[in-house]
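FAQ
Q: What does a multi-component entry look like?
A: The components come first, one per line:
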Amino acid sequence: MTLTTAIERVFNTITRRLDGPLMVVIVVLMAISLAVVYSASGGESFDRMLGQARNFAVAFVAMWIVANMSPQTLMRLAIPLYVVGLTLLVGVALFGEIRNGARRWLHVGFITIQPSEIMKLGMPLLLAWYFHRKEEGLNWKDYAFAGLILMLPTGLVLRQPDLGTAILIFSAGFFVIFFAGLSWKLLISGIVGGLALLPVAWNYMLHDYQKLRVMTLLDPMTDPLGAGYHIIQSTIAIGSGGILGKGWLSGSQAQLDFIPERSTDFILAVFGEEFGLIGTLLLLALYLIIVGRGFMIAMNAPTTFSRLLAAAITLSFFTYAFVNIGMVSGILPVVGVPLPLMSYGGTAILSMCIGFGMLMSISTHKQLVST
Amino acid sequence: MVGTTIKNREAELKVFRKRIIFATICILIGFVILATRLVYLQVVKRDQFYTMAEANRISVVPVVPNRGVVYDRNGEVLAANYSAFTLEVTPSKVKNLDKVLDELAGIVDIQPKDRRRFKRLLEESKNFESLPIRNRLSEEEVARFAVNRYRFPGFDIRARLFRNYPFGEVASHAIGYIGRINDADLKKIESTNLFSNYKGTDHIGKLGIEGSYETELHGTTGSEQVEIDSGGRAIRSLAKSEPIAGNNLKTTLDIKLQKVAEDAFGEFRGALVAMDPHSGEILAFVSKPGFDPNLFVDGIDPVNWNLLNTSLDRPLTNRALSGQYPPGSTIKPFMALAALENGKRTPEFSIVDPGRWFLPGVARPFRDWKPEGHGVVNLHKSIVVSCDTYYYGLGNDLGIDKINAFMTPFGFGSKNGIDVEGEQTGLMPSQEWKQKRLKQKWYAGDTISVSIGQGYWLATPLQLATATAILANGGTQVTPHLLKEVINAKTGEKVGYKPPPHSHRNFKPENLQLVRQGMIDVMKPGGTAWRAAVGAGYQIAGKTGTAQVIGMKAGEKYNEKLVKERFRDHALFIAYAPADDPKIALALLVENGGHGGSIAAPIAREVFDFFLLGKKPDPETRKKRDYDLDNSD
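Then the predicted structure of the entire assembly, as tokens:
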């Protein structure tokens, strides 16, 4: 055995379960993220950028581990993950720590966790498993039960209150139900019913600060120094970037601290200002490649479980990107959703990469199942 | 069984594929929406947002010019600037101000006085203005705050120029003071189109020279373009246009003389105006009590403010130009001249004074201040002994309209045009005036009171000084003024004060001579102020006077020692010296001082001694000054 073949074998072992196209795009996005995070921290300190690199490293390892699990293993994890997640959410509701007026965190021993993050993946996992089991003849009762699985954690997260995460958890689960073949009739009547409930939700379920965010979106100039400030400053930043951008480390809005949360939720504003339309369209293209690849994996998936999971994860990924870009560019309310693989923050990157790991697991394990 | 399962599988897959296609379409639409939005922001609206970003980034900061320095006529600094650190706060950026101030007090010494003053400023100003909470921080305090600055958002240390009045209370009414710009000032600034020049300036001249020469002193505001961060902190300078410093002013005041004059008043309240009788340059301008203008610079704290405002002594009132008093006997030389010029009296004409005088047809007598009378009195003696009875008849013969016509050109009854604000007109009555204002006929008896400077006649100390100057210079009108020259701070170019054109009145030299001789003899044994001139070494021409504070009932004689101090008469004195070649003319008033000869004239003597001889008053002499109220007018 020569050295080259040894290296080759090790390399093959490592990359066996990784999906090539996804890997390329993810690495490119991570590289961009490091550059923008460095710029967003004022271009003076490497601390934040190194922190983000560490986040990526941890997420990479997690992705690799998940990718190396078979879809059957993932399926077996569905119920425990969901139950643990739900239990923790109940725990949050009862004993959670309040930060910034919201009860989202739970002390478990020495660490503080945000259980709603677990549900972002736990939800599609369980629902995909649920529909996988009920392969023949789905009737309305099955959908009703699926609805219950969906609404329990969503309701708990909404109560925290955390509208952004609730929407993401809900949509992740909803996408599974949608791909499982929920009839258009039920779907449309559900949407109509939901719209009818909107005024009720506005009056009784939304908190004042959430209403304010929606109102601010409708007319940010009503409160240019208060709630509208974030949206105004981020649209100014993006707009002023023009086609070519002001150049890396040269965005005045970004460097002079006019952009709020510039390395986390509003990182697109920094990116848009410094890299212009070329940069933002490139970002959209990279996201589109991920979505396309995700759907291809879903289409080629051998089992109902893997199909539904892959499609739901992919559509969720798009939802993240769409909500964040829409929010930062001023067409959606500010709901606190990070830009996938770009925003600084360990938890979001970790759960995103675990999702990619699941996609890769599905994409690389299909031969085993079909034989 | 197997077949249906496969069938279901196929059907399910078909549905799934359709759903994927549907989702793909939705996603593409989503991406198109986002791309459209980005194109809209970054291409269509790019210029607008670019401008907005630049506006965010660049701030034009006014660069406040140095305020001009005020000097006295000999180059002594009366008002100057110094730089010091202040701790300032923008109230709108701080949530719980009181609590934060408590925390801050642990780092920087904040006295209750500072808090009171700050509260007052807070009430008067807009929330987004930066207001000083502590002035004149020590180096150590600056350093301590700098370390803790992160704990106090909205607070900042700034280097500011402060106004300093090294002489404190001395000449405070003439120099005036600067204070923070208030709403009234702002309106004035806006109405004069100077608004942009006052950007960044937060003080403005309020009174005196500081107030009236504000435009000269302020200078032209420059500007600096700086890059700022979202907190408004300047990051770097991009461009700068230098401010033009305000002009320096040389005043006509002689601050040493001023000090002598103010000290001469001792504890008395009152006013004194001394001027060059030929040019109208004011050499000393006293209004006692004064105030410390330095108190106003930082924004006066409410305790001191109340003290100044509610004090019975009214230290903020400029008595010299807004105090209107009956001129009393000080106008007798002018009345004498009026009678001579109008041919109503000759030098030889004499009366025998019984101590009272009857207006034909009126039973009630007009009394002389000396109950037993002055005996035989001619015009010269009437001035020397200040005989009331002589002037009752004289005034009656002249009539009010002739008196008014003669006195008006001396500056009585109108503003004398001094170059600081607040001048009152006094009152030179006439038939027309009484009819108009009081809707009453003028009675002959009214003229009798006016003849001895009582009744309706009111004059300011400034007017008396001006009139005395005109008498001293032989009839040339003067405009009293405090500005000597404006000195350009950069080029040193000087522009002198330009008086308005003045007319000259020709009095008959022998008439003028007679009146002047009377005033000279007032200061000699037998005259009402002779003691004040003892050993002077130069000749003084003067006239004493008394202004009644409370009306006396007919036939009543009061013992002033029994009357409360506040109701005692005001002592007046006008004089010029040297009598043969006048270099200085003055008028002064001592509130509740009693009689002119004993209280007021010695003050004039100290002023003259210092001005003419450079002689500093001897504290021993002052102590021994005869406050015995001898009963002369």
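Q: Is there any commentary attached?
A: Sometimes. For this entry: Chain B touches chain A through 40 residues (CB under 8 Å).
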